[in-house]
Amino acid sequence: MSTTPETGTRSRTRRAILSAAASVLARNRAATLADIAEAAQVGRSTLHRYFPDRRDLFNATVTDSFQAVERSVAEAAIDHGPPLEALRRLIAAMVDVGDRLAFLFGDARVLEEYTDCFEPDLSVPTTIDLIKRGQAQGVFDSQVSAEWIQEMLWALTYTGWEAAEKGLLPRHGVTAAVIRMFENGIVVRREP
Amino acid sequence: MSTTPETGTRSRTRRAILSAAASVLARNRAATLADIAEAAQVGRSTLHRYFPDRRDLFNATVTDSFQAVERSVAEAAIDHGPPLEALRRLIAAMVDVGDRLAFLFGDARVLEEYTDCFEPDLSVPTTIDLIKRGQAQGVFDSQVSAEWIQEMLWALTYTGWEAAEKGLLPRHGVTAAVIRMFENGIVVRREP
DNA sequence: CCATAATGGGACATGAACGTCCCATACTCA
DNA sequence: TGAGTATGGGACGTTCATGTCCCATTATGG
User: Fold this and answer.
1) Which nucleotides of strand D come closer than 7 angstroms to any CB of the protein?
2) A39/A170 Cα distance (integer angstroms)
3) pLDDT for A169-179, tens place per residue?
4) Contact: A187, B84; criterion CB under 8 Å
5) pLDDT per residue over B4-39, tens digit each?
6) Fewest 10 Å CB contacts: which of A71, B141, B144, B178?
């Protein structure tokens, strides 16, 4: 049962398809396979050659996107340093993979259905861990659940990506805008 | 060209369909007309009788949902009183029509495509007005654009609705959770 | 330069959702 | 109770994305 290692060409084609799928589906989840193939600059036949089924492509795209996000987040080393700084690195990392995150987050049921399959990798420090660490240190709001904070983190990041998508925010300002909101909200506080 | 006023029965049926459409499509935008008909407790024939086309139904649902949201927001009287309190009323009003808002907000392109059609009603004070008023009074963050704040407001409200949907937040706690986040973020501040 | 891998594009069958039509039934109001 | 309204459900044709095959063409690598 040895899987023959993929040719360079095949590997590139596969990744092009997965990337295009995430990008296209993030913006329109009713997109046709033909749409995706076109975006990947690949014939529809080729797409089917790599992913026989639509479900196959979808599953693969979920897995791939999840891994891409995971990798980006892992690089942020959110288990090191002060929670606040770690959070900022985390947000920056998430914005970096906005496409993939938008795909995963766009359809609410995607994450729900697949979330179980990807938990086991305990080597990667989770967002929840970071939030709880911050809460334990009294840096983050402890009046609300860590899970709820995580939801908002994803939502705000997605919103930032979307805002950039429609030209409402400059690309390079997304991270800062999200961080600003996430940390402080919109109410101006005056020193007593 | 006098439009005969609708029978009570027809009016009820129509509203049942529109409500069901918003609710079903909010949770699954690939839902079948049969799904919607079933949710509305109506035969598929009847649905087609009221909305010949899928596009017809969709357009009507957008309009209806928009008006429902508008009505709810109007009741919040966001042009009166201190901006902070008005904002809280606004969020509560939006959470109240969570279904409709989720439908409108769920598909990013829905609002983009239709947003032009609904602007003209200037009698209703807009969210943007409230945000700008708050910014002018130095109560809301002026470092970011009002449009961006509005995006986040919708996003957070939607996230709250979704969190309740999946049991992550209690229904009655959604409004408070959203307000808390929107105003203060998650970072704990200490008095100097 | 040649063998083989990889691709593109067309032809075709399939199935699901859609839109239309029709008729029997139930409900409403005078 | 009778006329007209509103509905449900089924039958039917159509469209479109999908999935499968096949063959000619191009790219790759030894």
Assistant:
1) 5-10, 16-22, 28-29
2) 24
3) 999 999 999 99
4) yes
5) 557 778 899 999 999 999 999 998 888 999 999 999
6) A71
